[in-house]
Design brief:
Shape of chain A: rod-shaped
Structural class of chain B: mainly alpha
Largest interface: A-B, 50 and 68 residues
Oligomer: heterodimer
Strand content of chain B: under 5%
Helix content of chain B: 55-70%
Radius of gyration of chain A: 39 Å
Number of strands of chain A: 4
Distance between the termini of chain B: 76 Å
Helix content of chain A: 40-55%
Order of helices and strands of chain A: HHHHEHHEHEE
Structural class of chain A: alpha+beta
Number of helices of chain B: 8
Largest sheet of chain A: 4 strands, mixed
Distance between the termini of chain A: 93 Å
Strand order of the largest sheet of chain A: 1-4-2-3
Number of strands of chain B: 0
């Protein structure tokens, strides 16, 4: 093995020999270029090219060839500028997501756009206002948006059969039950909950009415939120 | 004076339009000529050692000197700390850009053209040894090739590092690595010559 390594080393050129080979090739190539290139004609072409008012073809920027261990000052500057712009964009997006935008007050002009709208609807047993397990599952779809979007308003619309005299009271109980559940489960501030109750008129085919409560989450762009609830 | 008209100078002659429009002083123009005459062949050779053909190298070098001419016209050329390194970097980048552009161009099939009768220089005029050196350089990694070519152009390790964005020590290491590869490759030729002798 050592003999083989020694042989390989003998077959290699030493530094001086390598320099001699390279400089001989360099000299010959230079002579070749000098013979091949008409420098005076090229000079005139260059000065004429500078005469046409065109932009300079190139200015040095990043080093060549591309290396991973360093960059030029200009390259660094551009990287810093790009990083700054990206950071600013991320911060602005975070601020836009985190802070609530202006909340329309009661009776303000109605808006036309809703940023977020999540709806669900639950049913009650006839003449009952307790929230069943199925209803809890249906209501739980609202919890995640309520946690992420701090400025959502919740509109609860409760309906009850209008045949009974106690229809209005039952609708109020149902809306209150949903409010209580949302306050307890999702920690929604009571000020964000707007309950409207409605008693449907008696319709021939419906014996007990729809007996439902619909819950709508609306984003802040909607001016309808504080205006008394949804029909 | 009408636009585009050359202004008269003290000695009654009109200097070149290019010089006027770029506001290059005659003294600076002479300086540019001297720099060009000295450096242009060296620059063409440099780009060729980086893997370009003669025509490609000549084009790249010409673009680099046009950039010099513009910088002179804007009065910024004096700010360039290392003019030799500057033109080499510009020429190499221009060559790389041309290569990328040529790769994107669609290839249109054309019938074979008849051979030109004009005699001219070609790489056939170079000896086998020189062609082998160029081939060996082109087989190296870009960074290794660059450090060797800069060394052949007379750049110190520090200057090469500045041009390539490497530390001086890194340049020395890369030079040694490239030297080992080349020495191994040319060793075979040494052996053949020894056997012939």
């Amino acid at each position: 093995m050592a003999a083989k390594n020694g042989l390989l080393r003998k077959l290699r050129l030493n530094d001086d020999e390598l320099d001699a080979v390279l400089s001989a090739a360099d000299e010959e190539l230079l002579g070749y270029v000098r013979a091949a290139v008409d420098t005076e004609a090229t000079l005139l072409e260059i000065m004429a090219a500078g005469d046409d008012g065109s932009a300079p073809p190139e200015t040095p920027g990043a080093p060549w060839p591309p290396v991973h261990s360093g960059t030029s000052r200009r390259g660094c500057r551009w990287m810093v500028v790009a990083a700054g712009i990206s950071a600013a964009a991320v911060i602005m997006f975070a601020v836009w997501c985190y802070f609530p935008r202006s909340i329309p007050r009661e009776g303000e002009a109605q808006g036309t756009e809703t940023a977020v709208s999540v709806k669900t609807s639950i049913s009650f047993a006839p003449h009952r206002y307790d929230i069943t397990a199925t209803a809890r599952t249906q209501l739980s779809v609202l919890l995640e948006p309520l946690k992420i979007w701090r400025a959502l308003y919740v509109t609860i619309s409760a309906y009850a059969d209008g045949r009974s005299d106690s229809g209005q009271a039952l609708a109020d109980e149902r809306a209150e039950a949903v409010q209580d559940w949302l306050t307890a489960a999702a920690g929604v501030a009571p000020g964000k909950l707007h309950a409207t109750t409605r008693v449907l008129p008696h319709q021939g085919g419906l014996r007990h009415g729809p007996a439902t409560v619909s819950v709508v989450l609306d984003g802040l762009k909607s001016g309808r939120i504080g205006a008394g609830g949804r029909p | 004076m009408q636009p585009g008209e050359c202004p008269p100078v003290a000695d009654g002659h009109q200097v070149a339009t290019a010089v006027d429009e770029l506001a290059v002083a005659p003294g600076v123009e002479l300086q540019f000529r001297a720099f060009f005459t000295d450096q242009f062949p060296l620059l063409v050779k440099f780009v060729m050692l980086c893997g370009a053909s003669l025509d490609e190298a000549q084009d790249a070098a010409q673009e680099a000197f046009i950039a010099v001419w513009h910088e002179l016209g804007r009065g910024r050329w004096q700010e360039v700390a290392n003019p030799e390194g500057w033109i080499r970097r510009v020429a190499i980048r221009q060559h790389g850009r041309t290569q990328r552009r040529d790769r994107r161009l669609p290839i249109v099939p054309l019938p074979d053209l008849p051979d030109l009768e004009q005699p001219g220089l070609s790489t056939v005029d170079l000896t086998e040894e020189t062609l082998e050196v160029m081939e060996a350089l082109s087989a190296l990694d870009p960074v290794l090739r660059a450090v060797i070519v800069y060394k052949m152009a007379g750049f110190t390790a520090a200057e090469t590092g500045q041009e390539l964005g490497l530390t001086e020590q890194k340049v020395r290491d890369q030079r040694k690595k490239a030297g080992r590869k080349l020495a191994k490759r040319f060793g075979g030729r040494k052996k053949q010559k020894g056997e012939q002798a």
